[in-house]
Specification:
Layout (H helix, E strand, L loop, with lengths): L2 H14 L3 E6 L2 E6 L13 H15 L1 H14 L4 E4 L4 E4 L15 E2 L4 E7 L2 E6 L4 E6 L5 E3 L4 E7 L1
Antiparallel strand pairs: 1-2, 3-10, 4-6, 4-9, 5-8, 6-7, 8-10
């Protein structure tokens, strides 16, 4: 299994709301777990068949708290642009615990400037700004899990 297949699997798992997927091949083992505190003992075989019943409760519950935050912030300033997570993983504002944060509220960003890191499967992915502007709000706490397409920062375009 190559990196692109693994990333596609991560996107699929986050999209259908499955909490855990495990793949065992003769010389390869892959386990993807989301929200480990909520996982109950269950067998998912095959994933596509079992995904729909398992996804009903978590999908309905998860977006409810996140949804009001973004529209409320956008209602205050319609011109704000959201930097969103391109993947599922753990959000970090610093490259390591001793370093300063990549960006703070009020900092100017330009395309290509690293704004955070998202760790996915022990890979640390630098997330770069695709726009120029000023950081207005950081929407995620450091070292917390994020979902695909989850808003991370609000930016006032320059």
């Amino acid at each position: 299994m190559d990196l692109k297949e693994i990333q596609a699997l991560i996107k699929f798992v986050s999209g259908v709301g499955v909490d855990e997927v495990e793949i065992n091949q003769k010389d390869f083992k892959l386990s993807i777990k989301k929200n480990p505190a909520q996982i109950t003992t269950a067998q998912y075989t095959p994933v596509a068949v079992q995904a729909a019943p398992v996804a009903a409760a978590p999908v309905a519950a998860a977006p409810t708290p996140a949804a009001p935050a973004a529209p409320a912030a956008e209602a205050k300033a319609d011109n704000l642009i959201t930097i969103k997570s391109p993947m599922v993983g753990t959000f970090y504002r610093t490259p390591n615990p001793e370093s300063p944060v990549f960006v703070n509220v009020g900092d100017e960003v330009k395309p290509g400037k690293v704004v955070c890191i998202i760790e996915a499967m022990k890979l640390f992915n630098e997330i770069e700004s695709e726009i120029s502007g000023k950081i207005v709000k950081v929407l995620v706490e450091n070292a917390t899990p994020v979902e695909y397409d989850q808003p991370l920062f609000l930016v006032e375009p320059a």
